[in-house]
Amino acid sequence: MRRTALLASAALLTGLLPLLSAGAATADEPAPVPVDRFEGEVPFANPPAGGLFTWGGDADDPPALALTPRTDAPEGAEVLTGTYDISGYGGFTHDFAFDQPAHDWSAHKGIRFWWDGQNNAKKVAFEIKDGGANGEASELWTTSFTDDFTGWKQIEIPFTDFTYRTDYQPVGGIDQVLGLTQMWGYALTLPAGVKGWFAMDDVELYGKADQSLRASVTTDSAVHPVKEGATATVKLSVATTGAAPIDEPVTVAYESAGGTAEPGKDYAPVKGEITFPAGTTSGTTRTIQVPTLRDKSAEPAETIPLKLTVTGAKAPAETPQIVIDAHGLPYLDPKLPVKKRVADLVSRMSLEEKAGQMTQAERGAIGAGGDIASYDLGSLLSGGGSTPTPNTPAAWAKMIDGYQLRAQATRFQIPLIYGVDAVHGHNNLTGATIMPHNIGIGATRDPGLAEKAGAVTAAEVRATGIPWDFAPCLCVTRDERWGRSYESFGEDPALVKSMETVIQGLQGARDGKDLKDDDKVLATAKHFVGDGGTEYGSSTTGSYTIDQGVTKVTRQQLEAVHLAPYQTAVDRGIGSVMPSYSSLDILGDGQGPVKMHARADMINGVLKGRMGFDGFVISDWNAIDQLPGDYASHVRTSVNAGVDMMMVPYSYKDFRTTLIDETTAGRVSAKRIDDAVSRILTQKFKLGLFEKPYADTSGAAQIGSAGHRAVAREAAAKSQVLLKNAAGVLPLKKSQKVYVAGSNADDLGNQTGGWTITWQGASGKHTDGTTILQGMRNAGGDVTYSKDASAPTSGYDVGVVVVGETPYAEGVGDVGNGNDLALTPADQAAVDKVCAAMKCAVLIVSGRPQLIGDRLGQIDALVASWLPGTEGDGVADVLYGKRAFTGQLPVTWPKSETQLPINVGDTSYDPQFPYGWGLTTQTKVPGGGEATLKALTLAARAADRTGSTQLGRAAVTKARLLVQQSAGSTITPALAKPFAEADHLLLTAHYTQALTKLLEAYRAR
Asked: Which residue among 95, 460, 810, 910 is the active-site one?
C-alpha cells in the first residue's frame, strides 16, 4: 500500500502503534506519526507523483539511493541507504503527491529520524517544504545537523529550529511564515567534497506543539537609529505558526541595560512588562518607547540595548538596539570639502574599524547581518546569482536597506558600499534591461551608444539601492579561446579606449560630482592588467586553460596593448579598479610571472603613481588566496602592493583579524592603512552615502522600461556584423516566406549569455525579453520555425539559421575546458539542411567567433550576432531593414583554431574576416575605384591638418566600404592585413595613414 505522511489509513496506524509504543507518550503527548518507514511503502518517483528522488549540480552529483535490508535497522527490516561523491551540490527529496492534499504537521513539536553516523564532522542540511501549490512550488525552511557520531542515533529537530532559506526559493517565497498546516515533504543536502555513504530510517513527527514552540515574539528591527533628543519606538509583535490566536498569555519583560550610552545622561532608562492575553491574534503589535536626552557635546553614535525576557513564546533572535545617531562631528558636515571630512573621520577611527572598512563580505555569508556591526564591515557584494527572494527591485532595495541599517549600529555609522557585477545591464535582476555583452558594444563602434548603455545600467542598478558596479571590463582580448572574450570591447586597445565613454554613462562627470545622483554608480575598471593576454595552457586554476593564466609581454607590449585603456579610465575619473587573477611576466625584468594582486610595481607604481589614480583598488573574489605563502603573507603582500579593499566573501573574519595582526606587528604600516581607508571613504562621501545610505527607489519604475529597452534594442541592432551578403539576401522582405531554424533562434538565455541572472547564465527563459524569432514575428515577417530543421523545407523564399554557443562565464568557457569554437553537430546539420534547400542567412549568437569556414561557400549571408541581450527585436530590425547593418568586427575572425591567437597588427595575418570588417545595407557603396580612394585621401589629409574628426571618419568609412565591395568574398592575407590596420589607424585618428592602408588593401584584392 503506497502511503503518504499523515494520510495513512486507520488500520495502518493501528498496526503501527505497537512499533511506536516506546515513543508513544502520555495522553497529553500524541504518539509519533510516521512519514517514511523505508519499507517500500514510498516509491522512487519524480514529481508530480509522490516519492523519493535525487538531484544535483551536475550529472555526477546526485547520490545513488536504495532500500537496503539491515538487521540493525532501528525500525522495520529495511533502511534507506545511499552513496555519494559530490563536487557541487546534491541530495534527495521526498515530495508528497501533487494530486493529493498537503499535510498538516502543526500539532507536533518537530520531525525526527534515525541516522547511521560516520563521524565525519560534516554538516547535513535538512529542509522542509511549507505551503504553496506543491512540493516544487513551496516555501523552503532549513536547518542542519552534524555527523559527529558513530552508529545509529535519533536526530530530533524541533520545528522552531528551521529558518527561512534566503539563498533560494523556488517560487520566490510566499509569506515567510512556517505555517506547518500545508506541508509537502522534506529534503536532505549531503556534504560536498567528500566521498561517502549514509543510512537513514524512520522519519516521523514527534511531540506536542506547545505554545512556546509555535508562538514567537519578534521586533520590527534589530537596530533603531534615533536623533539625539528624540524618542525611539520599538515594536513588538506576537506571531504563531498557522496564524492561530495564542492559547495562553505571553509576557515580555523589558529593560534598557548596557551599551555605550549612559543612562540618565544620554537617555531615560525604561523598565516594564507587556502582556499579550490569551486569544490575542497572530500579528498583534505593542510598542516600547525609550526617550533620549540632548546634551551639548559632539559625539559618535551610542547604543542602548533593550533586554527582553519572554515567557510563553520564543524570544527574538537578537536583542534590539537603540542607536543615538552620531552628531556634531566635522565628518558629518556635508558643507565641508570631502578631503576634510575624510581626514576627520580617519583620525577618529581605531585600527579595528579601519580594517573593517577594508573588508568586503558576500551577502550570503553574513546571515541576518549582525556581523556588519560586530566586524565594522565596510562593504558587501552579491556575487553572480546571489539575489534576494523574490528577485525583484523592491526586494533588492529592502535587503540592502536592511544591511545599511546594521551599519548604523557602529560608532561612526559609516555606510556600507554595496557592489554587484552589472556587466551588461543589471544582469542579476530578473526583468532588468540586458544589454549586449561588451564584445557586441565594441562591434557598434558607437561611443555615444556605449555611454547610453552605461547610463541605463547605472539607473537600474542605483534604483535597487546599489551604488557600486564592478564594470566595465577594460580587458583587451587577444585569444578567442579565453572564456571571458565577450567581456572585452575588442582586441584593439584603441577600440577599448573609444568605448570607455561607458564610464561617464555609469558615473557621470569626470570629477565625481554626479555620483550622489539617484541614477549614477561608482564604476570599476577591471582587470588590471593584462587579463586578456594570458597564454593558452598557462592557467593553474582547476580545469581552466587560459583564464587566470600568465600574460607574457615585453614592456612595450604591456604599455601599448594592456595598460593604455587604464590611463584613459583614470583620465575619465574611474572610481575603483580591480586587479586581475592572472599573473604578469614582463620579459626581461627578472621577476618571472607574478600574480597581479602582488605586483606593487604595477598597482602602487604605475596605477596610483604614474597614472595618478586616486580611487580605491578592490581585489577580485578570493584572489589573495592564489598568492604564495601562508594567509598572513597573502594579506600583507596584497595590501602592501596597493589593494585597498579585499573581496573575501566567506573569510572576512579571518582577513580582518589577520590584517589587524599584521599592522600591529608593523608588517603593514599605519600609513598604508590610512591611505586605503581614506580612498574608500572618499568614494563613499562622493556617493552621498553618509547623507542618504538607503535606497532611492524613485527610478525603480524605469527598470526594464520601454525607454531603457529602446537603448538595448538599438545596441543589439548596431552590434550585428554582416560578414557576407551574396546576392543581397539581407535585408529580408516581409513578403518573403522565411524558414527559421537553429538552437539560438528562440532561446533568450542563449542570446543573453553568461552573467545573466546567475553567474554562468542558462539556456531557456529566465528573465523578460524577446528572442530573435519573436522579434522577427514582431517585425511582421512570414515566419515558420523548426528548431532542428526537421520540418519540410519546400516552398520557402529564404532560410534564417540561428546557431552558436550556450552560456558560460570566465574560465568555465575556456576552449579546452569542455568547449571549442566549432558549431555543435545539431547546428551544423541545421545549417546544412536549410542552406541546401534555399537561399540562407546564418546568424551566429556567441561570445566569440565560431569556425564556419568549411560551410562558408554554402551560406549566402553570414551575421555575427554576438550576445545581443534581451532585445531580439533589435536583431530583427536589421534583418528586415528597419535599421541598416553597420557593425564592424571588434576581433579578428579566424579560419581555424590553429591560427590563434590572431590579432590586428600581426606580422602574419590570414583570417577568415579581418578586424574591422562589416558590410552595410545603409547606403550605396562608393564607386570609382582607385580614383575615389585618392580623392578620399585628400579629404583625410585635410582632416588631419584641421583636426576634423567628422571629416576624417567619413573619408575612411567610405574608403572601407569601397574596399569591402571590391573584395567580394575573396579576402587574401595581402588585403586583410592593411584593411585591419586601417581600422586601428581610424580609431587613433590617423586618417591619412588609414587611407594609405586601404589603398594598399584595394590594390591587393
From this structure: 810
Tell me the three cell numbers of residue 172: 520566490
Write down the residue that cell numbers 593564466 correspond to: 549
User: Are 661 and 622 a contacting pair, CB within 8 Å?
Assistant: no
* Ramachandran bin of 808, using left for φ above 0, alpha for ψ from -120 to 50, beta for the remaining angles: beta
Q: Which CATH entry fits the domain spanning 33-209: 1.10.3720.10, 2.60.120.430, 2.40.10.10, 2.60.120.260?
A: 2.60.120.430
Q: Return the CATH fold of 419-610.
A: TIM Barrel (3.20.20)
C-alpha–C-alpha distance, residues 897 and 920, integer Å: 28
Q: Parse the chain into domains and list their residue ranges.
A: 33-209, 213-328, 419-610, 720-891, 899-1004
CA distances from 372 to 353, 396, 463 (A): 11, 18, 23
Q: Are the C-beta atoms of 324 and 226 separated by less than 8 Å? A: yes
Reported as half-sphere exposure (CB side, CA atoms, 13 A), residue 528 has a value of 37
Query: Which candidate in 517, 519, 585, 620 is catalytic?
Result: 620
- Torsion angle of the four alpha carbons 739, 744, 746, 751, in this order, in degrees rounded to the nearest 10: -140
Amino acid symbol at 980? A
403: helix, coil or strand?
Answer: helix
Contacts of 565 (CB under 8 A, 6+ apart): 474, 476, 493, 496, 497, 500, 525
Is 620 an active-site residue?
yes
If we measure between CA atoms, which residue out of 315, 351, 344 comes closest to residue 329?
Answer: 344
248 in active site: no
pLDDT digits (tens, 9 = 90+) for 499-508: 999 999 999 9
Closest CA to 801 of 747, 848, 739, 860: 739
Tens-place pLDDT, residues 530-564: 999 999 999 999 999 999 999 999 999 999 999 99
Distance in angstroms (rounded) separating the CA atoms of residues 709 and 715: 10
Is 268 in contact with 228 (CB distance < 8 Å)?
no
Which helix (H) or strand (E) segment holds residue 158: the answer is: strand 150-158
**Rounded Cα–Cα distance for residues 839 and 834 (Å):** 8
- C-alpha–C-alpha distance, residues 480 and 854, integer Å: 19
Dihedral angle computed from the Cα positions of residues 850, 854, 856 and 859, in that order, rounded to the nearest 10 degrees: -100
What are the start-end ranges of the E strands in 409-450?
417-420
Q: How far apart are CA 909 and CA 916, in angstroms?
A: 14
Strands (E), 773-854: 782-785, 798-804, 839-845
Strands 379-382 and 110-118, bridge-based pairing: unpaired
Query: What SS3 state is found at 952?
Result: helix
Q: How far is CA 187 from CA 53, 612, 1005, in A?
A: 9, 55, 67
Residue pLDDT, tens place only, 151-162: 999 999 999 889
Rounded to two decimals, the pTM is: 0.88
